[in-house]
Amino acid sequence: MPEAVPFALPAVLVVLLLLWFALRRSAGRPRDLVAPDPAAGGGQGEVLRLARAGRTVEAVRLLRQQTGLPLLEAKQAVDALRAGGPLPAPPGGPVDPGGGVRAEATRLVRAGKKIHAVKLVREHTNWSLAEAKRYVDRL
Question: 34-44: per-residue pLDDT in tens?
Answer without folding.
Answer: 334 444 444 66
